[in-house]
Amino acid sequence: MAKKKDSEKHEDGQRGKYNKDDADANELENFVDDITDEELLGDILQKRPKVSDGVDTVIIVDGVPQVNPERFEKLKVVITKIFAQFGKILNDYYPKSENGHTKGYIFIEYEKHESALEAVTQANNYKLDKQHTFLINLFSDYKKYNDIPEKWEPPTLQPFPERPNLQYYLSEPDAFDQYYVYNINSHIEVWLNSNPQPTKLVEREKWTESLIMWSPLGTYLATLHKQGVVLWGGPNFTNVLKLSHRNVQFVDFSPCEQYLVAYAPLDNGEQKLTIFDIRTGAEKRSFISDAPMAGNVLRWSKDDKYFARIGHNTLSVYETPSFGLLDKKSITVNGIRDFSWSPRDNVLAYWVAEDKDVPARVVLLEIPSRKEIRANNLFNVADCKIHWQKAGDYLCVKVDRYAKIKREKGDVKYSGMYFNFEIFHMREKNIPVDSVEIKEPIHAFAWEPIGSKFAIIHGEPSNNSVSFYNVKSGQAPVLLKKLDKHFCSHLFWSPAGQYIVIAEIRDSGALEFVDTADFTTMCSTEHYKATDIEWDPTGRFVATGVSSWKTKGDTGYWIWSFQGRILNRFNTNTYCHMQWRPRPPTLLSAKQQKDTKKSLKKYTSQFETKDKMRMTKASKEVIDKRRKLIKEFEEYRSKRLDDWNKQKAERMAIRSHIDTDELDSDDKNVQVEKVEFLVKEEVTVID
Predict the structure, then answer these.
(1) Disulfide-capable partner of 259 in 254, 313, 578, 636 (CB 3.0 to 4.6 Å)?
(2) What CATH code would you report for 52-146?
(3) Where is this chain compositionally biased, Basic and acidic residues type (predicted)?
């Protein structure tokens, strides 16, 4: 037989291969591929090139002065100075006519798309002089604006999404507060602090992927996910709003809950800050910050009209709803370290570090006028902390001062440290300042939320003291009481004032409940290894917790009355954190609140009767539950006895017709023994 040539072998192999492929194709005729490209190659498709790539970092600036070649360099310097503050400029192009004159518009290319967006937002309508105002657009928007249809068509009406009642919790008939409990594996529970036992309202697994928090007025519950932020509300905690912001790590609300700021890290170590309008879900403004991921980079005024942030030797104040710079320029403050808004007025307090012979300064700045309403020079300053009283009537600046300073290889060392509290009287003419000097180390400071007292923990760690001061109009702070030899680290005032918890966190867990009206100790107790302490918004209850995030063993949370009486203990190995649901400020005037307190005795008997009825109801429920269990047990026992009696004939047959159900039924196999032993011996001696 003749051998096949190599080419024939190859053809036979290919023919077999094709036949196999045809068979496979026939087998897969009914196969349906239901996996989308996004599901299969989602990460890769996100990186695919876009039409806008390469041009989304370019802006077009119109309204630029038309100048001759002699003035061109001067114009370029001015333009670069204005637009370089938004980011690094890679290229710029100035179109010119045949005679070398600029045409009145330019192209600027930034390194980042975010810089281009910021330039459009901040510099659009920027007035260079009386005759020239900048009009700025992204180059990628040129096609969109160029292809506007000639015939206008009205937009399609969208159905209005009905929102649940977001303030339902304020109409709770017994004014019970809510709180959430965060457990391991993102197991979230929302409870109503009812009497005598809390009631579980909602329980959900994997409700969040990282963080959960209430909004400042308690309207929303925010959860963080890889894709962004979700806001929940209403009686059933339904999804109210979704905000897209990838890899979000932290969120912050404006005080009036109009806006939300989302913080997310970028690959280059910076973080992106995005401001959303909560009512519409629209993105209003974004920033790129090189500050560490600690949140609270943007700080809001009390009415949401302004927000501010610190830059390099600058304080930038922005206004809403335009989200542009106030007066279109930042405030130059060389050496600024920190700032804080007044909780009542649109006033900023900031401090500036000392520089050689120039002293440190604490400045009060009025917004929007930018007027310095008070400034105070300070010498030998190492650090300052700004503390506003909740009502905004007083400002305390804690000043860390030194006697000597030593600089070595860029490091600064202080010695001979002592401390001052600079108290600003905000409601008095010219805002006078009083000073309280403390020679000992300061461990904690806290204003009374409603009132004019403040408390400090000072002294050596092994021998701390707690001092209470009172501030009055026209007077220097007065020492009211000093509590010596207190092993403590934190101060927690009641939101209603007067009562305070002096606590030691994460060691002994010592708790001392003090009434500052006469400085009597209502209760001294402990929650061992306590890591968190939080008052409820009404000042009636205190929650202490031992978080599994910070310690091991005996984790859980306890709820106390404001007097220090333990009400409920919830010990669980999965407990991580709890937070009370905030309440908005009362709508009652100061006079109405005062009249309500005076007439409180009229309603005391009604409240006590209601509490007794509630306790009686709870007792009745417990009794009914026990009776039900006893009845079920008796029914079960009766059924088993009937079965046992029916099986008696079988037992007799198995046991040779000997009845062994009773002990005395078979007296032949029973042996009786008598055992006597001494139980007790008493000896009485009578003289």
Answers:
(1) 254
(2) 3.30.70.330
(3) 1-23
